[in-house]
Amino acid sequence: MRKFTFLFVLVAVLMIASPVYAQTGGAPAGNWSVPIGVGLGMGLAAGLAGLGQGRVAGAVAEALARNPGARAGIQLALFIGLAFIESLVLFTFVLLFLRTA
Question: Which domain holds residue 61?
Fold first, then answer.
C-alpha cells in the first residue's frame, strides 16, 4: 500500500509540473507558477529534511543509550550527517532562487 501511495504522489506531481513548462501559443501567460513552485519546493525540501534530521537524532540517542563509550565517534557521525542533510536544503534554496531570476 505504501509503494502505491508513493507512486500515486509521484505521478500526480509529474502531471502537475509538466504543463507549467509548456509554451503558450499567443501572449505569454502570467508568471504565477514560479512563486508557487518555489514555495512548494522549499517547503517540501525543508519538511523532509526536518523529518530526516529527527530520525538521525533519534538513532543517535538510541546509539548513545546502548553504547555510551562510543560517544565521540557517534557524535562525529551525527554532525556530518546533519551537515549533509542541511546542505541539501541550502542547495534547494539556492537553486529555487536561481530559477526565479
Answer: 34-101
